[in-house]
Amino acid sequence: MNEDTPDLVSTRWLADRMVDDNRRGEIIVLDASVHLPAAERDARSEFKAAHIPGARFLDLASLTDKTSPVPAALPRPEQLSARLSELGVSRADHIVLYDDSAIATSSRAWFMCRASGIERVSILGGGLRKWRREGQPLESGTVTPDTSSDAPRLHPAEGVATKQDLLANLEEGSEQVVDARGADRVFGTGTDPVHGVANGRIPGARNLPYGKVFDEDGTFKSPEKLRAAFEAAGIDWQRPVVTTCGSGVTASVLLFAMHLAGKNDVRLYDGSWLEWSADPATPKAEGPE
Description:
The chain is of the alpha/beta class. Helix content is 31%, strand content 12%. The chain has 11 helices and 10 strands. Strand 4 (94-98), helix 5 (106-115) and strand 5 form a beta-alpha-beta unit. Helix 5 packs across helix 10 (250-260). It is globular, with a radius of gyration of 19 Å. The mean pLDDT is 94.
């Protein structure tokens, strides 16, 4: 983190800077909302109807590497760079991400940016829900910014664990695995209601449902409370961790929460349960712990 770039910013922080013309130009606000199919919501249409003034639509759902065998894989560096260029983001800009999603998708966008080499990126605590509840200004319509010719220079995402890494870890046990899905999906039997695969987990995985890292207003809990939540879930704070979930989205929430609490020896299993469960050769645990 740069000294002038907090990982998490408040609605007051953003609102104050939006009225300061000298500061507004260096802050680029991006809507990173993505919704599960069952929610029957269209993120782009909702952005057009109401968004934070000056915000641009990231279209996070389309930022995947279709050439990868990993389901919903993180984008290649050139994909992300091209998208940021289209949105008018330059290397000097400070990106502020927000979402209006039940699965807190701005954390996925934050990890995508940070893992690819962007340091000036923050998440808006509480997202659009908190912004709207406070009566902060909104605008509607389509935003078409000027293309940037100085987009951030990116590299392949770091801090990503592969299926092969997790298979090796079953033998070595060097990294702890924590699953962000609900306990019913991790420890239950039958069919996963979100992705349509069998319920279950990677053997040995701990469970901390991602919703438990938030306060009632949708903001992240304090670093002390976050650490306590992970430790209550059986995570040894002194050992490295891999986060997982269904498809790599809410696993990013746990990774960001640990980062806020000062823990950075954490990797994301991008393939997560969608990849693991689809391979008949991977061992699975099912039912109560």
